[in-house]
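Listing S7. Sequence submitted for prediction.
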Amino acid sequence: MMKNSIQWNLTNQKCTEIINLTLVDILSEKKNNIISLSELILTLNKRTKIYNLNNNKKFNTFSKYLKHEYNGILSYIERLNYMSIIKNNNDIMIKLYKNLLDLNDLYNHRITKDSEWEFIN
């Protein structure tokens, strides 16, 4: 079953650029570059509100964008090589590894949302 196509007012490239830069900024401000998932989502939505992300003239948050386009923020973060997800009992923490951070990664955009490629000869 295909999911409904949502027409966002910003391109996928622009959205991922905003999200990557904002996530790195939020985590860089925290002690040991680590934050709880719930706090990260709240802060992401607050800081990105100025971009007026919408579909069909209805205001949306970037966390909703991530949920629709990448099956959630955790799935999105798993794709990034400079962040990791730490699960501790009922708590989920997100950690930034500045030593792995490359500025090109922040602007690097995937051609597809597929996590695997299959080459056919």
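Caption to Listing S7: primary sequence and predicted structure tokens for the chain studied. The beta strands are 34-36, 54-55, 58-59, 83-88, 91-96. Residues 12-107 form a domain with the Arc Repressor Mutant, subunit A fold (CATH 1.10.10.1420).
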